[in-house]
Amino acid sequence: MEALFATTTGILAASGLYLALRGRTFPVVVGLTLLSYAVNLFLFSTGGLTTDGAAVISDSAGEYADPLPQALVLTAIVIGFAMTAFSVILAMRVRGDVGSDHVNGNRIDEPREDKS
Amino acid sequence: MMQHLIILPVLLPLLTGVALLIHRGGALTLRRTANVLSTLALVVVGVLLVAESTDDTIRYYAVGDWQPPFGIILVLDRLSALMVMLTSLLALGSLLYACAGDDEQGSNFHGLFQLQLMGINGAFLTGDLFNLFVFFEVLLIASYALLMHGGGKARTHAGFHYVALNLLGSMLFLIALGVLYGTMGTLNMADMSAVVTTLDTADLGLVKAGALLLLIVFGLKAAMLPLYFWLPRAYAAAPAPIAALFAIMTKVGIYSIIRVYTLIFGEQAGPLANLAQPWIWWLGLATLALGAVGVLSAREMRTQVAYLILVSVGTLLAGIGMHSEAALGALLYYLIHTTLVSGGLFLLVDAIAQQRGKAGARIVQSRTLTQPATLGLLFFAGAIAMAGLPPLSGAFGKALLLQAATTAQQYWLWPILLGSGLASLIALSRTGSTIFWRASGEKTGITLGKLRGAGVLILIGCAPLMVAFAGPITAFTQATAAQLLDRDAYVESIIARGDTGGDA
Question: What residues form the membrane-spanning segments (chain A) (predicted)?
Answer without folding.
Answer: 71-92
